[in-house]
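Work Package 3 (structural annotation) set out to generate three-dimensional models for the target panel prioritized at the project kickoff. During this period the team completed the workflow that converts sequence records into discrete structure tokens, so that structures can be stored uniformly alongside our sequence database. As a representative example, we reproduce one entry of 190 residues exactly as it appears in the project archive.
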Amino acid sequence: MKLLFELFLQFAKIGLFTFGGGYAMLPLIERTCVEQKQWISEEEMLTLTVVAESTPGPVAINCATYVGNKQKGIAGAVAATLGMIIPSFVIILILSFFFDAFIKNRYVAAAFKGIKVAVGILIIDAAVRLFKKLPKKVLPMVILCAAGIAMLLFDIFAVKISSVVLLLAGALIGITAYAITKRKTGGKEE
């Protein structure tokens, strides 16, 4: 029961004090789950981030659900997920009653301008951390560069494409490269 409460509490703190969505939460999730609590390893965090992004639902909630499940099964998954969701839900519910007055307040507007910058920095921090952990092999670097160039070109030419398409393309390239490597090595694992 103590671990369930701790899962709920830790993810509630992350959910309560993080603005900017799942990507902004990733550094806090990593700090809490890998460095402080050691609930998962760095390698698991990297894999979890990729899987959480590739599956339906918000990335931070998917991460919380996985960590909770790993620690305490379904009850842990529920505790961690509720911990991540409840703070945002309560805040949005309260703000919805006062939204018009809230959004017109110049102090709130100024605060949100500052928060936008901080969120951008948190997202860049998450990207840098993921890049540092990326295997420094040819294929991952090629996929990274190709996806980066594709996203940049799509932005420049205002072409709308879902990030899911890029994820699926990366997965297809990875599977193809694995199949080619396996064929060259005669079915032996590298």
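Helices lie at 2-17, 22-36, 42-54, 59-97, 99-104, 106-133, 138-156, 163-184.
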